């Protein structure tokens, strides 16, 4: 065996061991008593609103958070701003969202999908932040919501609709007199984004660098559930999304930061 072949073999073994160690950490953390204290400061169950842009956002990006919250018995509501009708499959994608949420144990009656002409899926489609803020205000009022989860200002993938959802929630927080706690899912650089479970170590260290209660790192207690949920989005379940879910760090860990 040549030196180059030996070097590549060692690199491959190192990467494999790192993945295995990371997966073991995910499994151990999900079965240990030392899990994060996110939303456990009191025995009262929260009413939490997850605001997303498209059907499949919940499975591709937020599944570790959803799994954590449902396992703790919190009431999770999903507000999907569009049907994802960019390719004319809005009705199909809406039904797929319901099926995915069933896998993620979110009750059907706690899911709402909008189809507003001014808030249609697509790159270059600018969404009105004031309109988004008004919609969030109505949902918070009707569901006695005390906490909101959404994208950060980059929106994980950089999709303009994701960014607009973030700014709409921000606009609501700035304008509303209601006391609502809000959290954003932090975007990472491309190396971390596609490092799979290995990113849990970076996420854990990052969360430790912030004052207590400002950033939480949530490990997925069952990564296979992310695959099962995303597989319900059959219209989107093409080869590159299968690779994304396999290698995306968002399948294994979510880092949430409190929105100031």
UniProtKB/TrEMBL annotation:
Decide whether keyword Chloroplast is in the record. no
Please name the SUPFAM superfamilies in this protein's record.
LmbE-like (SSF102588)
Domain of life of the organism in this record?
Answer: Eukaryota
Q: Looking at the UniProt record for this protein, which Gene Ontology cellular component terms does it annotate, in alphabetical order?
A: endoplasmic reticulum; membrane
* UniProt cross-references to Pfam families, sorted A to Z: PIG-L
Does the keyword Signal belong to this entry? yes
What is the name attached to this protein's record?
N-acetylglucosaminylphosphatidylinositol deacetylase
* Organism of origin: Kalanchoe fedtschenkoi
